Amino acid sequence: MSCKKAQGFLEQHDVQAKSVTDASKERKGPADALALAKSVSFIYVAKGKKIVTINMKNPPDDDALIALLLGPSGNLRAPTIRKGNTLYVGFSEESYAQLVK
Predict the structure, then answer these.
(1) Strand order in 80-83's β-sheet?
(2) Taking every pair of C-alpha atoms in the chain, what is the biggest distance, in angstroms?
(3) Domain count within the chain
(4) CA-derived radius of gyration, the chain
(5) CA gap 38, 56 in Å, rounded
(6) Which domain holds residue 73?
C-alpha cells in the first residue's frame, strides 16, 4: 500500500526515478541494507505516522539500524528511495516533501 502512495506522490510532483528495483524480485537482506545505510549521510525512516531521523555521522548500532531498515520479511523495507546522500525508508508524505524541494 505505501509503495502505491509513494508512486502517486512522485507522479503528482513529477519526480522521475533514475532506476527502480522491484523489491519482490530483488531482495536486499540485512548486509545489503547496512551497506546502503552506511553509504549515505542521513536516513529518514517512516514508522506509521512517526519519522525517525538518523544522522550517519553518529549512527545507532547495527542491530538498531537493521531493526529500522528491515520489514517483517527480513528484507529492506519498500519503498526505499535514495536521493544523493539521503535515504528515505517507508512512505511519509512529510519526508517525501524534501524530495521535491
Answers:
(1) 50-55, 42-47, 86-89, 80-83
(2) 36
(3) 1
(4) 13
(5) 7
(6) 2-17+26-100
- What is d(CA 69, CA 45) in angstroms, rounded to the nearest whole number? 7
Write down the residue that cell numbers 547496512 correspond to: 34
Give the predicted TM-score (pTM) of the model: 0.88
Of 90, 95, 34, 25, residue with least CA distance to 62: 34
- Cβ-based neighbour number of residue 62 at 10 Å: 13
Q: How many CB atoms lie within 10 A of CB 10?
A: 17
Q: What is the pLDDT of residues 66-83, one digit of tens each?
A: 999 999 989 999 899 999
Amino acid (1-letter code) at residue 95: S
- Cβ-proximal residues to 28 (8 Å cutoff; 6+ apart), any chain: 36, 75, 76
